[in-house]
């Protein structure tokens, strides 16, 4: 148990950057929590993305997160990497409307294309702040790379919303999160049990939803991860082969010297 002094958490901590939070810590008493450690399919040298989980995670982003958060560094065509067909991606992009100009220069809109970046939920920063009580929801393109702990940190925030403990002074408009630095976060709890109904019938408990959306966001931030892993394995095998060959040549050369 410890007492926290009022402080404005800097954006550089990214605590405020996760999922649209502008956070202020108030005088409080709360027990520090250790971030959960999750066994991710994409971890380690041989890690790969669970395509089904990534697709479910995209469903969550599309139905929940995209109401406030952008993916400005991602393209609709990137969804082919999680197992969507080219036609599915084309239809999905076409369901979004993008600003355009007519031949005579008048503003209009057009259907999206697979080559388009994901459409922003707000036309500009002012509109985004106005809709979120002055806070600017962060772009989620690289959220798992921008915070130490990466996927575990994002998973912890998504699953860490609980009632504030007795004696904790929660500032007006903020929410208690046991894993968030300072425990006070502007973002309301985005996921709960059964927030979405999965198309494939998978359990939609909070833990599963959080795992799935983190898998999707990790893919968006690291679409080349599997290729890097494959290259890493090839490099390791080559180095092992080269070491063995060097040792064999050394023994052959020294054998002639000894004789």
Give a short overview.
The chain contains 6 helices and 8 strands, in the order E-E-E-E-H-H-E-E-H-H-E-E-H-H. The protein is of the alpha+beta class and 259 residues long.
Report on the structure:
With 259 residues, this protein is of the alpha+beta class. It has three domains: 1-67 and 124-223, Cytochrome c-like domain (Cytochrome Bc1 Complex, Chain D, domain 2), CATH 1.10.760.10; 75-116, no CATH class; 228-259. Helix content is 34%, strand content 9%. It has helices at 51-63, 86-94, 125-131, 150-159, 206-221, 225-258; strands spanning 2-4, 7-8, 24-25, 28-30, 97-101, 107-111, 175-176, 184-185. It has a two-stranded antiparallel ribbon with strand order 1-4. A two-stranded antiparallel ribbon has the order 2-3. The longest helix is centred in the last third of the chain and has 34 residues, at 225-258.
Summarize the main sheet: 2 strands, antiparallel
Low-confidence stretches: 1-30
Could you give the order of the helices and strands?
A: EEEEHHEEHHEEHH
**End-to-end C-alpha gap:** 74 Å
Please tell me the total number of domains. Answer: 3
Number of strands: 8
Helix content: 25-40%
> How large is the radius of gyration?
24 Å
Mean pLDDT: 85
Could you give the topology of this structure?
Blueprint: E1 2-4, E2 7-8, E3 24-25, E4 28-30, H1 51-63, H2 86-94, E5 97-101, E6 107-111, H3 125-131, H4 150-159, E7 175-176, E8 184-185, H5 206-221, H6 225-258
Antiparallel strand pairs: 1-4, 2-3, 5-6, 7-8
């Amino acid at each position: 148990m410890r007492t926290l002094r009022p402080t404005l958490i800097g954006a550089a901590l990214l605590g405020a950057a996760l999922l649209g939070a502008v956070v202020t810590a108030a005088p409080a008493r709360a027990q520090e929590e250790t971030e959960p450690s999750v066994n991710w399919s994409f971890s380690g040298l041989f890690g790969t993305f669970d395509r089904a989980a990534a697709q479910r995670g995209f469903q969550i982003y599309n139905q929940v997160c995209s109401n406030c958060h952008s993916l400005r560094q991602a393209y609709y065509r990137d969804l082919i990497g999680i197992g969507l067909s080219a036609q599915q991606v084309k239809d999905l992009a076409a369901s979004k409307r993008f600003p355009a100009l007519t031949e005579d220069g008048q503003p209009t809109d057009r259907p999206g294309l697979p080559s388009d970046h994901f459409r922003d939920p707000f036309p500009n920063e002012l509109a985004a702040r106005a809709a979120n009580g002055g806070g600017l929801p962060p772009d989620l393109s690289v959220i798992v790379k921008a915070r130490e702990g990466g996927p575990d940190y994002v998973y912890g925030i998504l699953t860490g919303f609980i009632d504030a403990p007795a004696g904790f002074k929660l500032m007006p408009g903020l929410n208690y999160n046991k894993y968030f630095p300072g425990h006070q976060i502007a973002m309301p709890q985005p996921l709960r049990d059964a927030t979405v109904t999965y198309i494939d019938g998978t359990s939609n408990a909070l833990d599963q939803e959080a795992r799935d959306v983190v898998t999707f966001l990790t893919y968006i931030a690291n679409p080349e991860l599997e290729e890097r892993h494959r290259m890493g394995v090839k490099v390791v095998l080559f180095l092992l082969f080269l070491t063995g060959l060097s040792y064999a040549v050394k023994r052959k050369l020294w054998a002639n010297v000894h004789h």
